[in-house]
Amino acid sequence: MHFLAFSFGFKDVIDILLVAGILYETYRLLRRTGAANLFWGILAFIVVWFLVSFVFQLDLTGALFDRIISVGAIALIVIFQEEIRMFFYRIGSRFSSWKLFTSKSSEDDPRARQQILEITQACRHMASTKTGALIVIAGGSSLKEIVDTGERLDANVSARLIENIFFKNTPLHDGALVIRDGKMIAAACILPVSKDQSIPQHYGLRHRAALGLVEHVDATCIVVSEETGHISVAAEGKIREVTEDELFIVLHGTAITEEK
Fold it and tell me: pTM of the prediction?
């Protein structure tokens, strides 16, 4: 039986590290959707395919495995298109910074600073009365599909108007308020709910909707819990609770570093 002779060098180390990184990220994505067992099954199949085709060099069996790999790759792309999209979005997010209202820093823009104050004040009041709220601040994404699901507003950012929108039993209190380019664009918008099974059980539907959005687009979501009155901020696929003072800092562009 003939075995291939392998030479091992620096390039091979880089190759192994890259493959390990890709496999790790793939496992993380599949684990979030509850498909971790599928990952191990695919990995086992790839190992067997490598042994058959490259180590033992079984031509007929290797050709069969090659056909399965070709068809299976297309099938996996179709089945896991959302997860693949999320993977590339996270790669892209590493190279982009948050732009909440304008490209100009909010520290240097009095208008943006005032808008942040209005949002912070509204969240503070709603937290004190345990009024549930979900506010989306668009970053680089237009969020047109999300905006189209709600009621158009096109209003200036105002704490009183935000509180009125989320006041219990008002027509627009369900759903999300979308703020883009310093304007309140739409209310009662419907957000996609995250399928991540690792989300803590104490998070409600608003938190899951916030995560469902920021997993796919460049946006920041603020959630006020109706049960506890706690304020949470979601961005770049992460969410954490913040104090009222921390909320103001986060809206100035401070990254969320604590993993959910």
Answer: 0.62
Residues 186 and 63 in one domain: no
Q: How many domains does the chain have?
A: 2
Say whether both 119 and 80 belong to one domain: no
As a whole number of angstroms, the distance between CA 158 and CA 87 comes to 36
C-alpha–C-alpha distance, residues 123 and 241, integer Å: 13
Give helix 59-79 / helix 81-93 axis angle, nearest 10°.
80
DSSP letter string, 154-174: EEE--HHHHHHHHSTTSTT-S
One domain, residues 37 and 81? yes
- Give the tens place of pLDDT for each residue, 159-196: 999 999 999 888 888 899 999 888 999 999 999 888 77
- Give the residue from 31, 65, 93 where a domain finishes: 93
Q: Comparing C-alpha atoms, which of 25, 135, 40 is closest to residue 84?
A: 25
pLDDT attached to residue 2: 47
> Could you give the residue ranges of the DSSP H alpha helices within 94-134?
110-128
CA distance 186 to 154: 7
Looking at the structure, tell me whether residues 118 and 220 fall in a common domain. Answer: yes
DSSP state of 149: T
- Calculate what percentage of the chain has a pLDDT beyond 90: 31
Q: Which residues contact 182 (CB under 8 A, 6 or more apart)?
A: 101, 102, 111, 112, 115, 156, 157
* Element at 213 (helix H, strand E): helix 205-214
Q: Is residue 143 part of a domain?
A: yes
Contact in structure between 51 and 45 (CB atoms under 8 Å) = no
